[in-house]
């Protein structure tokens, strides 16, 4: 695998995780916390998310084989899930203002490191899907290492974003955070469509269908 594989994995995971959008949400949830507690919550959320994603990276291929699911079928399903995630990002699902709604599940702040920071923001269904897709696409040890490094780096970026959540939120402002979330959503949507297109192409390649011409008449 070339460096292109690592870059693709890193960019895809970075876009799905959306560290800056997560930091904006954390800035709202962490209001009233002292700096030390904010740091503990951020580190805990990152470690939980990292453990989940590394587990999916190691067991993804075995899981698909056990369930008799082909990688191409998973690409189509995963691409659809990523597209839904992208659509919600574009439509403002992660906007911090929505956290003020009395109906949102995020109002429960008993352990925000687990929910919503670790799950579903840093290691949500979309991220898990992307991790499994890249880990199953890895053909050798070097490419598996690339996927692991990409996972770790994205989570480190996420951690630093959480630690600097208040400063990032003030720097970008409400409008800036909204623009970033939507740009990343558009990029993720394009990646999701590409995933689905690749999967559908492989599933329905003409070479997979029997030839209508009898073998005796060929050649």
UniProtKB/TrEMBL annotation:
Topological type in the membrane: Multi-pass membrane protein
Spans through the membrane: 6-29, 41-61, 73-91, 112-135, 147-167, 179-197
Keywords carried by this UniProt record: Cell membrane, Membrane, Transmembrane, Transmembrane helix
InterPro entries xrefs: Multi_antbiot-R_MarC (IPR002771)
Domain of life: Bacteria
Cellular-component GO terms for this entry: plasma membrane
Location of this chain's protein in the cell: Cell membrane
A UniProt-annotated Pfam family: MarC
Main location: membrane
Family: Belongs to the UPF0056 (MarC) family.
Classification via NCBIfam families: NAAT family transporter
Name by which UniProt lists this protein: UPF0056 membrane protein
The organism of origin for this protein: Micavibrio aeruginosavorus
